[in-house]
Amino acid sequence: MSQEKTKSCVMCGKRIPAYANFCPYCGAKQPWLSESEDNHSRMQRVVEWRDTPLGRLTMLAVGFLIIVAFASSCRLQDGPGHKTVGRELNQYLFNAQEKTPFGKKPKIKVDKNKGVSIKISNSSKAVKKLKAGKPATWNRFVARVKRRSNSFKHVYANQLYSKIKVTARDDKNKLLLKVDQGKIKYNIADKYH
In the chain, count of helices (H) and strands (E)? Predict the structure, then answer.
């Protein structure tokens, strides 16, 4: 019998005739080979090299670099920008209204390095009622700030967004309320009980 060109089956690896479209042993479809391709074609040498220890190490290194490049492009972000957090708080705490029980246009400042500061009027209806022994509006506000602080703790990667400080803008930044990660650190209402 003459020397017939053969190739390896892509599925089972057995030697089959080079012209075969399907493996006679396992039935797998075979890629078409041109006449110039033989057992030691350039692709075959690459496949054989990949099976060597150096080839495996190189493939691992390339795979690792691809994973690192992908991971660095998908790194964890701090969450939304400070303006978005400020708008969300304004909507949640003050219903985005200009006139509130806490004064006209409460000012919310969000800093990713310092946390959230809210400035309200010390002469507002809510603070006056609190000082007069009617803390209902203030207590609702405190509960909302506490809930929002706690939710920020669980939602945003930057935990400083859950640090909320409420001060009086017309009384030299007098501290009225301080909440950190859903826990009240200071509440001026304690002073009036």
Answer: 5, 9
pTM of the model: 0.57
Question: How far apart, in whole angstroms, are the C-alpha atoms of residue 167 and residue 186?
Answer: 11
Distance CA 184, CA 175 (A): 13
Q: Are 34 and 45 in contact (CB under 8 A)?
A: no
Size of the chain in residues: 193
Of 172, 186, 189, 181, nearest to 119 by C-alpha is: 172
pLDDT exceeds 60 at position 1: no
Number of other CB atoms surrounding residue 68 within 10 Å: 10
Tens of pLDDT, residues 8-29? 898 898 999 888 889 999 999 9
Query: Tokens representing 59?
Result: 């493939």
